[in-house]
Amino acid sequence: MTTARADSSPRETSKAPDPRDFLNIDAHLSEEEIGVREDIRAFVRERISPNINGWWERAAFPREIVPEMGERGLLGMHLEGYGCAGRSAVAYGLACMELEAGDSGLRTFVSVQGSLAMTAIHKFGSEEQKEEWLPPMAKGERIGCFGLTEPEAGSDPASMKTFARKDGTDWVLNGSKRWIGMGTIAAVAVIWAQTDDGIRGFLVPTDAPGFTATDIQNKLSMRASIQCDLGLEDVRLPEAAMLPGAKGLRGPFACLNEARYGIIWGSMGAARSCLECAVEYARGREQFGKPIASFQLTQRKLVDMLLEVEKGTLLALHLGRMKGEGTLRPEQVSFGKLNNVREALDVAREARTILGGNGVTLEYPVMRHMNNLESVLTYEGTSEVHTLILGNALTGVPAFR
Description:
The chain is built from eleven helices and ten strands. By secondary structure, it is α+β, with helices and mostly antiparallel strands. The chain is globular and about 80 Å long. 47% of the residues are buried.
């Protein structure tokens, strides 16, 4: 029979959980990762939060803060060399979380610039292309865009109509792209096009004759960001404009997975912002003679929101560690994107009910986050597409066609 040791003493009672980090996730972060997060959190607090309502209401992208993002290493943060910060996958994810706690549109800019345009050049470009474009893009001196989606080819990029034909040593591009972030302010567009040899990527200077970009107007989501229609009419490029390392859809899909990874973290930033707003509001809003935080139904809503934010953040951290180890699979990225964006949108909707009618105004961030997340739910793969990716992984039976 086992007996307790006579000299044993009860363990010291741990502190009550911090509502902002209920599961003590910070204990699993390095000092460097926490430092990156705190730097970007301060940047959001000082430069984004005081101004975001005006930018969002005017549908204005704050181009003036792009060089500041470059100074903080946010542009191509996960890339090595060429002036890029070379941070860990988790550090980059934490930066995305803080940016999207400010606004999805600002995190989207960082994703378009770094995870899409710069990643395409870094992964698949020639040394000359990398040297020309990556250093000024990392500083925010030049902006890039990523032209994959078309008016009739959204979830099915293999059916794109944009075509590049060889003419001597040149390439001539014709086609159109839609919902392309930053197209009207970009210096270079990464354009994916059909060729006689399959889908290839091209670096198209946006001042090339025949290239046009037009802002999409009247958006009710992502209003502090820029999305565009692109047109290519007999755009002539030298042979050196092709990305030599990308052939087929493997190229653009590799870039999309980088962007999807940032979304896994970013969506939890938006959800956290909604939760914090709802908690603060519930404590201060009185009905029937007491704060609504004292009502059981309100507490249940807050707890349900807390559960999803903490679980989603743990999922993001786990996938981030896998990414850093080089073991993360595209299907697992789909798992994170599908779950975290869907749950973030539910958190935003639940938070809005706590704020009542006040929740639909820009006085509070909740409806702005909710509207933005409707776009995040769709771009970089719809929920339906990610569901089918996971279904295929689970059953071995593809159900796309």
